[in-house]
Amino acid sequence: MNETDILKEELEHYKKEKEKVRKIIGQIGGTTSIKHDRRVNIIFLIIVISLFLFDVLRELLHLQISGYSSNLAIELALLLVSVKIIWMINKQSKIDHFQFWVLNSIEFQINNMAKRMRENEQTFIPPEQKDHRKSSAGAGSSGQS
C-alpha cells in the first residue's frame, strides 16, 4: 500500500465522519430547527402580547367578566414564559451535549494521531539516532541540576 492509497483512505474516512456530523447537526439544531424555533417564538410572542393587551383593555374599560380572575391573563402569560424558558434550557442542554461529544471526538482523534506519530517515529528513526537523542537528553537534564 503506497502513500497515495493511504491518503485516499484517510480522505474517505474524513468524508464519512463529516457526513455523520452533518446528519447529527441537522437533528439537533440545523436549518429546519431554526425555522421551527422562529415560528414557535412568534407564536409565543403573539400569545403573550395578546394576553397583555387583553388585560390592559379590560382594566381601562372596567370590564367585569364573570368567572374571570383579574390576574388570569398575567398568570397565563407568566406560565407561557416559564414554558418557553424550560424549552430553551432543554434545547441548550442538547447543544451542550453535542459540543461535548464533538470535543471528545476531537480529543480522541488527536490522541490517536499522537499514538500513530510515536509509532511511526519508532519505525523510521534509525537506531544510532535514537541513541544520540537519549544521550543528549540525559546530558541536558543532568547539566541543569
Question: Can you describe what's shown?
Answer:
The protein has helices at about 5-30, 30-60, 70-125, 125-145. The chain is mainly α and about 140 residues long. The protein has one domain. Helix 2 packs antiparallel against helix 3 (about 70-125). It is rod-shaped, with a radius of gyration of 31 Å.
Number of domains: 1
| Gap from first CA to last CA | 48 Å
- Please state the structural category: mainly alpha
Sheet having the most strands: none
> Could you report the average pLDDT, rounded to the nearest whole number?
79
- The number of strands is 0
Shape: rod-shaped
User: Helix share of residues?
Assistant: over 70%
Number of helices: 4
Tell me the fraction of residues in β-strands, as a range.
Answer: under 5%
Segments where pLDDT lies below 50 for 5+ residues?
none
Radius of gyration: 31 Å
The helix/strand order is HHHH
Features of the shown structure:
4 helices; mainly alpha; 145 residues
Summarize the structure.
The chain is an all-alpha fold and 145 residues long. It contains four helices and no strands.
Topology:
Elements: H1 3-29, H2 31-60, H3 72-124, H4 127-144
Helix pairs in contact: 1-2, 1-3, 2-3
